[in-house]
From TrEMBL:
InterPro entries: 3Fe4S_ferredoxin, 4Fe4S_Fe-S-bd, Fe-S_cluster_ET. Residues 1-29 form the 4Fe-4S ferredoxin-type domain. This is Ferredoxin. The lineage of its organism: Bacteria, Bacillati, Actinomycetota, Actinomycetes, Mycobacteriales. One of its GO terms (molecular function) is electron transfer activity. Signal peptide: none annotated. Ferredoxins are iron-sulfur proteins that transfer electrons in a wide variety of metabolic reactions. It comes from Mycobacterium kubicae.
Length: 62
Protein backbone atom coordinates (compact mmCIF):
# COMPACT_ATOMS: atom_id res chain seq x y z
CA UNK A 1 0.00 0.00 0.00
CA UNK A 2 1.23 3.48 -0.89
CA UNK A 3 -0.16 6.78 0.41
CA UNK A 4 0.38 10.46 -0.26
CA UNK A 5 -1.10 13.71 0.98
CA UNK A 6 -2.52 16.27 -1.44
CA UNK A 7 -0.98 19.45 -0.08
CA UNK A 8 -3.58 21.53 -1.94
CA UNK A 9 -6.37 19.92 0.13
CA UNK A 10 -4.74 19.47 3.55
CA UNK A 11 -5.72 22.05 6.16
CA UNK A 12 -3.60 20.68 8.99
CA UNK A 13 -6.24 19.09 11.18
CA UNK A 14 -3.72 16.40 12.20
CA UNK A 15 -6.21 13.53 12.32
CA UNK A 16 -3.86 11.35 10.26
CA UNK A 17 -1.00 11.96 12.68
CA UNK A 18 -3.24 11.03 15.61
CA UNK A 19 -4.40 7.81 13.94
CA UNK A 20 -1.13 6.69 12.34
CA UNK A 21 1.98 8.55 13.55
CA UNK A 22 4.19 5.82 12.06
CA UNK A 23 3.22 6.97 8.56
CA UNK A 24 2.19 10.63 8.86
CA UNK A 25 3.73 13.76 10.33
CA UNK A 26 3.10 17.49 10.20
CA UNK A 27 5.45 19.87 8.42
CA UNK A 28 6.81 22.98 10.10
CA UNK A 29 3.90 24.81 8.47
CA UNK A 30 1.42 22.47 10.16
CA UNK A 31 0.32 20.43 7.17
CA UNK A 32 0.35 16.65 6.87
CA UNK A 33 2.81 14.63 4.87
CA UNK A 34 3.50 10.94 4.54
CA UNK A 35 6.90 10.09 5.97
CA UNK A 36 6.54 6.59 4.53
CA UNK A 37 4.97 6.46 1.10
CA UNK A 38 5.16 2.67 1.26
CA UNK A 39 3.09 1.73 4.29
CA UNK A 40 4.37 -1.32 6.19
CA UNK A 41 1.77 -4.09 6.43
CA UNK A 42 1.34 -3.66 10.18
CA UNK A 43 0.23 -0.02 9.70
CA UNK A 44 -2.11 -0.49 6.74
CA UNK A 45 -5.29 -0.60 8.85
CA UNK A 46 -4.35 2.60 10.68
CA UNK A 47 -3.40 4.31 7.41
CA UNK A 48 -6.74 3.36 5.87
CA UNK A 49 -8.53 4.75 8.92
CA UNK A 50 -6.58 7.99 8.49
CA UNK A 51 -7.69 8.14 4.84
CA UNK A 52 -11.34 7.61 5.83
CA UNK A 53 -11.23 10.10 8.72
CA UNK A 54 -9.42 12.95 6.96
CA UNK A 55 -11.85 15.91 7.14
CA UNK A 56 -10.52 17.33 3.86
CA UNK A 57 -10.10 13.96 2.09
CA UNK A 58 -6.50 14.98 1.39
CA UNK A 59 -4.92 11.54 1.77
CA UNK A 60 -4.75 9.33 -1.29
CA UNK A 61 -3.89 5.70 -1.73
CA UNK A 62 -1.94 4.60 -4.73
Amino acid sequence: MRVWVDDQCCRGHGMCLTLCPEVFTLTDDGYAEAVRADVPTEYEAAAREAIECCPEQAIREG
